[in-house]
Amino acid sequence: MTKENSNIYPVFDNSVSRREKELLLNQKSKIIWFTGLSGSGKTTLANALEKNLYEKGFLTQILDGDNIRSGINNNLGFSPEDRMENVRRIAEIAKLLLNSGVICICAFVSPTEDIRNLVCGIAGDEDFIEIYMSTPLEVCERRDVKGLYQKARAGEIKNFTGISAPFEIPKNAALSIDTTNKSVEECVNILLDKVLQEISL
């Protein structure tokens, strides 16, 4: 603890407990973490999953890379250090939502094991559900809905995952989904089979 933080004393004993909030919401809060290359389907499936869970009566909140980087993390770049800090802040926000009884759906490239382990360490193993979008690079690049791969190939974007920066395949993902030949509905059904077991009281 730094000298600046030595006078900070978090107090949670008098707060309404996470368990009480989960009972109020009739759900178990979890952090569902989508990781994968740009264009692999993270945001599309995160949104589709949230819609399906909402229709089933679950309270959720999506945290997405573009939204977070345009807001709370707009001062960060894409160096390894900034990527780590970007995800650390996101994980802390997700943990606050977790403790509020909310199911937090996160969609971030999070390209290295160290970054994903950081999130898992903050969330806790039992509350972290990692979903690896294993869609191959050539498919993601062919989609290139944002034109990012083209810019990365032209050298206009530095440290771009899959082109000039590596992506490390997750070792302990709860699910691996390749969206190449699957519809959104098919992918969501795969997700629901896993997720509903984890979030239902």
Summary, kept brief:
The chain is α/β, with parallel strands linked by helices.
**Global morphology:** globular
Helix content: 40-55%
Largest sheet: 5 strands, parallel
User: How far is the N terminus from the C terminus?
Assistant: 37 Å
- What is the topology, as strand order, of the major beta sheet? 2-3-1-4-5
Structural class: alpha/beta
Cα-atom radius of gyration: 18 Å
CATH architecture: 3-Layer(aba) Sandwich
In CATH, the homologous superfamily goes by the name P-loop containing nucleotide triphosphate hydrolases
Domain count: the total is 1
CATH secondary-structure class: Alpha Beta
Determine the mean pLDDT. 91
Structure, explained:
The protein is of the alpha/beta class and 201 residues long. The protein has a single domain, classed as Rossmann fold (3-Layer(aba) Sandwich), CATH 3.40.50.300. Helix content is 43%, strand content 12%. It has eight helices and five strands; from the N terminus they run H-E-H-E-H-H-E-H-E-H-H-E-H. Strands 2-3-1-4-5 form a five-stranded parallel β-sheet, sandwiched between helices. Helix 4 packs parallel to helix 5. The model has no long low-confidence stretch (mean pLDDT 91).
Give the topology:
Blueprint: H1 18-25, E1 31-36, H2 42-55, E2 60-64, H3 65-69, H4 80-99, E3 103-107, H5 113-123, E4 128-133, H6 137-143, H7 148-153, E5 175-177, H8 184-199
Parallel strand pairs: 1-3, 1-4, 2-3, 4-5
Helix pairs in contact: 2-8, 4-5
Which structural traits does this protein have?
single chain, 201 residues, alpha/beta, Rossmann fold, five-stranded parallel β-sheet, 5 strands, 12% strand
